[in-house]
Design brief:
Oligomer: single chain
CATH superfamily of the largest domain: Pleckstrin-homology domain (PH domain)/Phosphotyrosine-binding domain (PTB)
CATH architecture of the largest domain: Roll
Distance between the termini: 15 Å
Strand order of the largest sheet: 5-4-3-1-8-7-6-9
Shape: globular
Structural class: alpha+beta
CATH class of the largest domain: Mainly Beta
Number of domains: 2
Number of helices: 5
Largest sheet: 8 strands, mixed
Order of helices and strands: HHEEEEEEEEHEEHH
């Protein structure tokens, strides 16, 4: 029963997250701009991303550094990975790891010049089936830093208070915003906790 519930929550959250991200990050517009600027370039895979350059061997975890992450679109072509003004030639990538997580992926890229990137991505099978960027596939999970847990807890309390105000005044807009925010922050936490308490095997 717990497994069925977490699967249902995960699928619902993935769909909601993907739709919201595409709207918030203006993906259709960014994709049109990229095609307009590079008319001869064949796009193999593209999608919403939160991206950051990190120090060598940095763990993948929820922490405050993701607040400053670049938000936009990651594009894979036959020759490059492109994210905004970052262009990473595929020939300079010495290792790329696709970490399969609850609700999405993290693409870890290590270059021959010593740079390391982390790209948070929505679920998209095209990343697994493309053949120009050799990937090491791994299953994993993202840990929460102490700071991240504290901030999420504060945000959830604020949203619950906002929901109470909406219910008290019968303000539908407040109620919907509070529910959306609570789902956005709370569902990943619930899924993570549920996975930890599920019996293995």
């Amino acid at each position: 029963m717990l497994s069925y519930l977490t699967d249902w929550l995960e699928k619902g959250f993935i769909g909601f997250s993907r739709a919201a991200s595409y709207l918030l990050y203006l993906v259709p517009l960014r994709l049109w701009q990229f095609k307009h600027q590079h008319p001869q370039t064949n796009i193999l895979v593209s999608g919403v991303t939160k991206a950051r350059k990190v120090a060598a061997n940095s763990p993948v975890q929820y922490d405050l550094k993701w607040i400053r992450a670049r938000r936009g679109m990651l594009v894979l072509t036959a020759t490059d990975l492109v994210c905004g003004n970052w262009t990473i030639p595929l020939e300079t990538i010495r290792e790329a790891i696709l970490l399969d997580l609850t609700g999405g992926y993290v693409l870890k890229v290590f270059t021959s010049t010593g740079e390391q990137y982390q790209f948070g991505l929505n679920k998209n099978a095209d990343w697994k089936t493309q053949s120009v960027l050799p990937l090491t596939h791994q299953k994993g999970s993202i840990e929460y830093s102490t700071q991240s847990l504290i901030l999420r807890g504060i945000a959830l309390m604020g949203l619950i208070g906002y929901l109470y105000q909406g219910l008290s005044t019968a303000n539908l807009a407040k109620i919907l915003l509070a529910l959306m925010g609570t789902a956005w922050i709370g569902i990943p936490l619930i899924l993570r906790i549920a996975q930890k308490v599920q019996p293995k095997g």
